[in-house]
Specification:
Blueprint (H helix, E strand, L loop, with lengths): L1 H9 L14 E5 L12 H8 L9 E4 H9 L6 H11 L2 E4 L4 H11 L2 H6 E6 L8 H14 L4 E4 L2 E2 L5 E2 L5 H12 L1
Parallel strand pairs: 1-2, 1-3, 3-4, 4-5
Antiparallel strand pairs: 6-7
Helix pairs in contact: 5-7
Length: about 180
Amino acid sequence: MIDALRSLYQDQDHTALRFKRPSKFVFLCGGVITSNPHPTNLRDYLYRTKHFSNRLNADVVLAETARDLYRATQYKDLISFEEDIARIASLVLVIPESPGSLAELGAFATNDIIRRALRVIMQQRFENDESFIRFGPIEHIIKMHGRDFVGFYPWRVDDTPRIRSISPHYKAVVDFINDHLD
């Protein structure tokens, strides 16, 4: 098998060889997408209520979809599978607002392969928070790649729970994502 691969490699004209990335896509991680008429988290609001995928310069792939695909693969763990997704994704966007998305943020921030494609959208109220999330994974991303890899926006979730106060910042969030896609 090795000899066959070596022969194939040697038969190629590497100066003319070009690889084309599949269509651009954003791998979107965050809170749970529900059927509730009122979104309870930013990811749900952006994806289901605002249909922001229509305003992005890329397709959107939900983390749940990847998890379903993972089950049908031979990968030994989900992180290895998501590393490969990050290699072909234009952007890995995490909105840390659920236990799963907080775990993804921690895993992705310390993974050299995923971190290059990683962008994070956080509630502005946590920008200067004295927390492990802010001074752990978020600070690590900022130190490794710069402050522009993290977008801080004001929104809140009320007691109902419903997401509030993001509407005036919707365009800025979409621009943040599109700027990183370009």
